[in-house]
Design a protein that fits this description.
Blueprint (H helix, E strand, L loop, with lengths): L3 E7 L5 H12 L4 E3 L8 E8 L6 H5 L3 E9 L1 E3 L8 E4 L7 H9 L3 E5 L8 E2 L2 E2 H6 L9 E14 L2 E8 L5 H12 L3 E11 L2 E2 L6 H6 L6 E2 L9 E4 L5 H5 L4 E2 L9 E5 L5 E8 L4 E7 L8
Parallel strand pairs: 3-12, 15-17
Antiparallel strand pairs: 1-3, 1-14, 2-3, 4-11, 4-12, 5-6, 7-10, 8-9, 10-11, 12-13, 16-19, 17-18, 18-19
Length: 296
């Protein structure tokens, strides 16, 4: 079994589940999971976890993400993108480029965003897009999201191309819709490309075809690589047994309270991520990966 993470370039037309299914066939293993969906018409970075790397799925889902999005002003659709039914068309007469820039800037920082009906969010155990396909619209709770940066790359109204860096759980379709609503002309997402998820960039991503043609597993990133930003703590041999059993252990270290670190055995084996309790000098397991070789 292969353990680790693959930086997949999801092409248009594939669902995130399609990518996982195809990788299962290419790599001949069942234990594979993706780290957050991309719409079928969107493309770009989709980290996929393999084997024991699937323990990372929730952690990678929390990573900041960067997108390049095409906003089309003057049109409102039921899906908030160009695949949907046009609900309204309005003129952009009187709307200037400066107004568009000002409105886009107003979305910077923390916001409350209402998930679109055509999304995989669940209400009472049913996915919103399933309800939408039945012609039903239900009340959705607004969720906190953060836009760290929104940069206009090009503007030729009615089209605007933006680069957006945001928190997890953000819908770029909804951002496009909300910008249009605030301008009073409506707006929808025309194109979407995800260019970064945490440390994974689009430049280093690989299509499924390239992965299938690769002669080795050099494209797989080890689990350990995902935590290089954390400090490393190696313990003496007397604590090895506690580590292998996933137990809390005491060991004085020059760390901040609640700081997360990479912990290694006396044999320099990567065990997992621990949280340090400074008051007691104790380490508590956050996520255990031992044993996790690249191939097992």
């Amino acid at each position: 079994m292969i353990n680790g993470i693959v930086n997949v370039y999801k092409e248009k037309g594939y669902t995130s589940h399609d990518v996982v299914a195809k990788l299962r066939g290419i790599l001949h293993q069942k234990k594979i999971g993706h780290t957050g969906t991309l719409d079928p018409e969107a493309e770009g970075v989709l980290p996929v976890c393999l084997g024991k790397g699937t323990r990372l799925c929730d952690m990678l889902t929390d990573e900041h993400k960067t997108y390049v999005a095409g906003l089309y002003l003057g049109i409102t659709t039921d899906t908030q993108d160009m695949t949907g039914k046009v609900l309204e068309e309005r003129s952009l007469e009187g709307i200037t480029g400066n107004q568009v820039r000002e409105v886009i800037r107003s979305f910077l920082g923390s916001q409350l965003q209402v998930p679109p009906m055509y999304s995989a969010r669940k209400v009472n155990g049913k996915k919103l897009y399933e309800l939408a396909r039945e012609g039903k619209e239900v009340e959705r709770e607004a969720r906190p999201v953060t836009f760290f940066e929104i940069r206009i790359l090009d503007m030729d109204l009615p089209r605007v191309q933006m680069e957006v860096c945001c928190s997890k759980g953000t819908y770029i379709r909804t951002l496009c819709h909300d910008i249009g609503q605030k301008l009073g002309c409506g707006g929808t997402m025309e194109t979407l490309k995800r260019t970064r998820v945490g440390r994974f960039s689009i430049e280093e991503s690989m299509t499924l075809d390239r992965i299938a043609k690769a002669g080795d597993c050099s494209f797989v990133h080890s689990v350990e690589e995902m935590f290089q930003q954390l400090k490393k703590v190696s313990v003496p041999e007397r604590l090895d047994k506690a580590l292998y059993n996933g137990n809390t252990f005491c060991y004085k270290a020059n760390l901040e309270n609640q700081e997360q670190v990479r912990v290694y055995s006396s044999k320099e084996e990567f065990i997992g991520i621990y949280r340090y309790e400074k008051e007691y000098g104790s380490f508590h397991i956050v996520k255990m990966f031992y044993p996790c070789p690249m191939i097992s």
